Amino acid sequence: MSSTIREAELGASASKVTPLPARAAANTPMPQDHRIARNPGMKLDLGFMESMRNVNRSALERRVASLTKRRSIKADNQAAWLLRAVACMDLTTLNSNDTEERVRRLCAKAINPFRRDIVEGLGIADEKIHPAAVCVYHPFVATAVEAVRGTGIHVAAVSTAFPHGLAPLSTRLQEIEASVKDGADEIDVVIPRGLVFGAKWRELYNEIVSMRAACGDAHLKVILGTGDLATLRNVMLASMVAMMAGADFIKTSTGKESVNATLPVGLAMVRAIRAYFEETGYLIGFKPAGGISTAKASLDWLVLMKEELGRPWLEPDLFRFGASSLLTDIERQLEHHLTGHYSANHRHAMA
């Protein structure tokens, strides 16, 4: 199989796709390498937020069930979608025992995500398919930047007292600035969830505006910690505040909560993205993170994005997976596609 990632294959298995609104045309070349027009944010509009406050959980769950049960992506189409999942991945290591050598191994895997026999079997040697970014703690940013230099792979740093976000704001902003200085071009920040519970929307908005300013040219991905927010209403409102404050991406989870990315939560967030686009004309990215470890799960998320937001959200400038073990399962599935047999995990080395 050659040229596996093609428009026809990425669209062949999803009928009744909701198209991107026509208003997007001026803002959306096929996004690559941070070429989407950045979200400048807007004034905090509590009236607009109020219009988004009612979220029907049962309706969202029914929609998610219909997406995952009636879609079947097989054979070459499935391989194409799985390769797309890899291209939209933030390959991540966020462990207390991380070392510089472990980060270098992670970067090496990002640069060469597949075994040579799989690359040759799929005919993708010229496609240069690799994860969009590697995501690390601040102390390892410089190591990662050096390891992926010249490859087109971004370096994302988790900042602002990840994963709880409870340090003083000045400390959190200094961490962002330090990561940018070390070369990170994406910053994943975490909000203090207590501001959501207290409906302190102005304070939350002001904090995120400050974080966006500290990022400079680096892209800002705002982690909501959805597993801690208790209700889909809180998720929707926190999503809107983050986008109004200038977020380039909104992200579900740190991966450290007891409940991480779920499809109903993701659906609420992507509908907030759609509403923000209809209000402002700016496209916001989405990143589910935590617990997405199987190829099947990645396909469910890709279908969700394509049906709810359209083809541009299958590009790494507008969609990312926060993942560590997902790449291993995708590589196993691709080998099965070629050989008809599943191999052991240890044959697909990670960091």
TrEMBL record:
<dbReference type="Pfam" id="PF01791">
    <property type="entry name" value="DeoC"/>
</dbReference>
<comment type="similarity">
    <text>Belongs to the DeoC/FbaB aldolase family. DeoC type 2 subfamily.</text>
</comment>
<dbReference type="InterPro" id="IPR002915">
    <property type="entry name" value="DeoC/FbaB/LacD_aldolase"/>
</dbReference>
<keyword id="KW-0456">Lyase</keyword>
<keyword id="KW-0704">Schiff base</keyword>
<comment type="pathway">
    <text>Carbohydrate degradation; 2-deoxy-D-ribose 1-phosphate degradation; D-glyceraldehyde 3-phosphate and acetaldehyde from 2-deoxy-alpha-D-ribose 1-phosphate: step 2/2.</text>
</comment>
<protein>
    <recommendedName>
        <fullName>Deoxyribose-phosphate aldolase</fullName>
        <ecNumber>4.1.2.4</ecNumber>
    </recommendedName>
</protein>
<dbReference type="InterPro" id="IPR011343">
    <property type="entry name" value="DeoC"/>
</dbReference>
<dbReference type="InterPro" id="IPR013785">
    <property type="entry name" value="Aldolase_TIM"/>
</dbReference>
<dbReference type="GO" id="GO:0004139">
    <property type="term" value="F:deoxyribose-phosphate aldolase activity"/>
</dbReference>
<feature type="region of interest" description="Disordered">
    <location>
        <begin position="1"/>
        <end position="34"/>
    </location>
</feature>
